Amino acid sequence: MYSNGYIFRYAAIMVIIAAALLSTAAMLLKPFQERNMAIEKMGGILSSAKIEGVEKEETINKFNEYVTEAIVVDQNGNVVESLTDGSKENGAAFKLNMKEQLYLKSKGEDFELPIYKVKNKGEVIYIFPLLGTGLWGPVWGNIALGNDLNTIVGVTFGHKAETPGLGAEITTDDFTEQFIGKQIFDSNNEFTSVMVVKGGVKILPQNQQIHGVDAISGGTITSNSVNDMLKDVLESYLPYIEKQK
Amino acid sequence: MSTEKKEREPLFSAKNLRLIKEPLGANNPITVQVLGICSALAVTAKLKPAIVMSISVIVVLAVSNVIISLLRNGLPPRIRIIVQLVVIATMVILVDQVLKAFVYDVSKQLSVFVGLIITNCIIMGRLEAFAMGNKPWPAFLDGIGNALGYGIILVIVAFFRELLGSGTVFGLQIVPEGFYDFGYQNNGLMILPPMALITVGVIIWVQRYRNRELIEEN
Questions:
Q1: A125-146: per-residue pLDDT in tens?
Q2: Distance to chain A for B203, nearest Cα, Å
Q3: Do A14 and B112 touch (CB under 8 A)?
Q4: What is the tens place of the pLDDT at every residue in B74-127?
Q5: Do B90 and A2 touch (CB under 8 A)?
Q6: What one-character-per-residue DSSP string does chain A give?
Q7: What global pTM score does this model have?
Q8: Model ipTM?
Q9: Distance from A119 to chain B by nearest Cα, in Å?
Q10: CB distance A40–B97 less than 8 Å?
């Protein structure tokens, strides 16, 4: 039989070795993982502006090529920082931690948000990154508005842990392509956002249908989170949008 | 006195080779022992994640088997399950980190399932049933064998699901475009987990048809 002391020593040493091993691995691999995440973020921004077919290796170059301006705006819509040349992946807009900023906003403090201006086939496109809470974890995305800052050119969504086949469908083309051509302001120039409608857009009045998309069957909570994310985060960008119009 | 040395068993003796061969056929973890079904359903909609999952399980099972086998003599039986879990969990987190660093897309597709390797009953089962009572080398072979047996079924299932469900293999279009013009449709049901269960069932059927010894008495 083994004594209790032996068992405790055994367990303690084992745990220390495992912890040392894991933290070393995490530290060594972190630069590679962060690069992958940055590339994914850039890919999302580019594909929301309908710049498709970008190879993974050339994402950083393409990002710097297409993004003409990376902007940081404050809660009043004033441009805090604007980067037009050089490597935008190291700029303040790209490095900005949206989670922290939205937390500041929820406490009523000053906050800053990133915006990207992209030029694709001669057209200026404004891209607004989004972040919200899904069912099991965060959901995020990018919404690209045309030069009128009203009509949607494209959107992309991502999620940490939504249910595969249900909530996770928000990333599919079937869902995101519905947003193209929808508008976030009504004819009186009031902000309406884009609603994700359970039961389908067809239940909305005719004049509202341009502000809505179909929700995902079986993914109601995730659909609602996308709805709230669009409304809340776009609202924070409104001062900037009003100033540009 | 005998000068005869105790004869060393060759590395690939018939007994050791059986450790690799048996799980591939007559003692397959999925089709015969019916373990690890959960992940077999979840990651087999496409071939690529199925193969990455298989490789991950091979690495985790082989290395954990060796570690537990090395520890087996000093290991207090009262905490053996905890020690096994710590070893498996450490390995799985390492694999997850490596996947995130080098094959990010695949790691995103596998998402939670990599973490769920920890709960794959094949791994706990082999540690408890084999590695606790055998030397490192046979334990290593046993780990490779069982994980390969698991992986082969995963790849077969994924091949049919991807071919019939998406018309592709490894993401390359296999079913000719002309078929679609004549009204051929990809079977969307194949993408859903229930069809993986049915595919596994068909594999079990074929296997028992070919090997009558596997059929239960009653």
A1: 999 999 999 998 999 999 999 9
A2: 25
A3: no
A4: 889 889 999 999 999 999 999 889 988 988 887 877 766 788 788 788 898 899
A5: no
A6: ---HHHHHHHHHHHHHHHHHHHHHHHHHHHHHHHHHHHHHHHHHHHHHTT-----STTHHHHHHHHEEEEEEEETTS-EEEEE-SS-GGGSHHHH--HHHHHHHHHTT---EEEEEEEEETTEEEEEEEEEEE-SSSEEEEEEEE-TTSSBEEEEEEEESSPPTTTGGGGGSHHHHGGGTT-BSB-TT--B---EEETT-GGGS-GGGGGGEEE--TT-HHHHHHHHHHHHHHHHHHHHHHHHH-
A7: 0.74
A8: 0.73
A9: 27
A10: no
